[in-house]
Amino acid sequence: MSSKPLKQIHLAAHFPGVNNTTVWSDPAAGSHIDFDSFVHFARTAERAKFDFLFLAEGLRLREQGGEIYGLDVVGRPDTFTVLAALAAVTDRLGLTGTINSTFNEPYEVARQFASLDHLSEGRAAWNVVTSWDAFTGENFRRGGFLPREERYSRAREFLETANELFDSWNGSEVLADAATGTFLRDAGAGAFAHRGQHFDIEGHFNVPRSPQGRPVIFQAGDSDEGREFAASGADAIFSRYGTLEEGRSFYADVKRRLAKYGRTHDQLKILPAATFVLGDTDADAHEQAHEVRRLQVSGQTAIKYLEHVWNRDLSGYDPDGPLPDVDPETGENTIALGRASVRQFRDPLATAREWRELAEAKNLSIRELVIATTSRQTFVGSPATVAASIDALVQADAADGFILVPHITPGGLDVFADTVVPLLQERGVFRSEYEGPTLRDHLGISVPDVQREAVAP
Predict the structure, then answer these.
(1) Which UniProt keywords apply (predicted)?
(2) pLDDT in the model for residue 133
(3) How far apart are CA 45 and CA 274, in angstroms?
């Protein structure tokens, strides 16, 4: 009886903004704005044969207590600009960007991604996200208008409409003509007409069909709606479940949803975000990890984080002292604006009770509690230990691979590329060379067939 073939691991790299994942105070840390930092990071990922580089999105500076939150994101360049520039200095690495479906329009986003796919020769990917945050929306004409319950409705139609635009160029002859600069000979090429609840548009899409046909589609929602949205149309889903038990549960739940949309198990990749700390030995790595967490969570950061739950000013409390004896303010969170983490605490009173019990049981200060409850190191150990852990989780169907987030930018990925990747290659679970030029090749996802009726120009 033959054994089950080994799954091939997918690896990607996330270039984070300045936040409490990065240790930006470390002397080894570089700029999060200078293009050289993005180039170093991308070339390291490509040297290691990673599938793609991922950029998140920040549409407004976060605020806390009515002031700019200077301990976290202090600025972020435009996603498309950075990815387009990286396309010129890389050859195979996928280029993935988060673009919001709430504050943008299908035509402009489709045009930008189709252009990026052409510039990169088939390496573009779009992480489709939603927002109901009126605080962020104030920067846009749609500020505060979209009810929370409608965000996925708009996102679904947004993606459907964008796909119609991508697919509106469907003739190889027309694409060849466009590549040589010849004007359209097929008046129907690029024609589209969409009538729906959120979008009522028609015209001609002015970017010919790109190498991948459509960019690879990513999705990051964890709610039931988010999982269903991913199963219906995404090529990959980001996950926050990096442990065996939680990872297998999430993996099985999302994969089982594919059948109702006529999709197979392999047509959706599940990729949790993961941090890592490497050392010469496991003991050395764990000692380093402890120090990294203390650098990531300063006393000031711990107080600010606690305010997300308490929804009140806690600046008078000692981070090395006990938790506040007052209860959180319930209702709308008004102290921390633009923070996704605030939505994680849907029952702040229950969270406060749990944290008090934990702090009392382990005699933890505020800072120690925040470190304990926000532990970020997914993989800690020697290169051999980390390689074995990653392989075990993928083979156990807890993930299809991982999106790595180093705590030092831009050089923090180097040690992983130099020590862990060769061990995964020796195990026969990670590529030694790219097998194709496009991101779809890296992920093992085919170019979608174009099946559309002609649209009258």
Answers:
(1) Flavoprotein, FMN, Monooxygenase, Oxidoreductase
(2) 72
(3) 15
